[in-house]
Design brief:
Blueprint: E1 3-8, H1 10-14, H2 18-27, E2 31-38, H3 42-48, H4 58-65, E3 70-76, H5 80-88, H6 101-105, E4 114-116, H7 120-130, H8 143-147
Antiparallel strand pairs: 1-3, 1-4, 2-3
This protein binds uridine-5'-diphosphate and magnesium ion (MG).
């Protein structure tokens, strides 16, 4: 089953949207297999956003993601990488559809309150930056798994 890495960014935490954001993913019945609050270190931030190094927004991006605690999680489900990004909406909240997390709760692309992996490969890489294998809690069944007999 596919997995993705999601983080509620510091602005999402500070603005009190942890519950609302988690609810969107729970509503879709994605399985939460890991979940924790942490302060992202400089080292983790640089690894996470390595693909953006050298871009104009990179320094402020690193400052932003390390500016307060984030809520990091691993979600599991059918096509969860693309599905979670659909629920998040476009990077620029101006362009994100109403009903998406970014469309509903954010105004600027610099402060778009949530991160989600953009591919299965990125998900594997990002999960390893924030979680160890023994933090994965897959040993329970969600209601959807029970209903589908999985
Ligand atoms: N970002 C920014 N300015 C930009 C583009 C991106 O501050 O012009 C930030 C924003 O927080 C975004 C993150 O950099 O979420 C990573 O950018 P990416 O293009 O990977 O967007 P995402 O995958 O988060 O939708
Ligand atoms: Mg990205």
């Amino acid at each position: 089953m596919e997995r993705t890495f999601i983080a509620i960014k510091p602005d999402g935490v500070k603005r009190g949207f942890i519950g609302k954001i988690l609810q969107r993913f729970e509503d879709k019945s994605y399985k939460i297999v890991a979940l924790k609050m942490l302060n992202v270190t400089q080292e983790q931030a640089k690894k996470h956003y390595a693909e953006h190094e050298g871009k104009a927004f990179y320094p402020s991006l690193i400052e932003y993601i390390t500016s307060g605690p984030v809520v990091a999680m691993v979600l599991e489900g059918e096509n969860v990488v693309a599905g979670a990004r659909h629920i998040m909406g476009k990077t620029n909240p101006d362009e994100a559809d109403v009903g998406t997390i970014r469309g509903d709760f954010a105004q600027a692309k610099e402060y778009n309150i949530v991160h989600g992996s953009d591919s299965v490969e990125s998900a594997k890489r990002e999960i390893a930056i924030y979680f160890s294998e023994d933090e994965m809690c897959e040993n329970y069944k969600t209601m959807l798994e029970i209903v589908m007999g999985q």
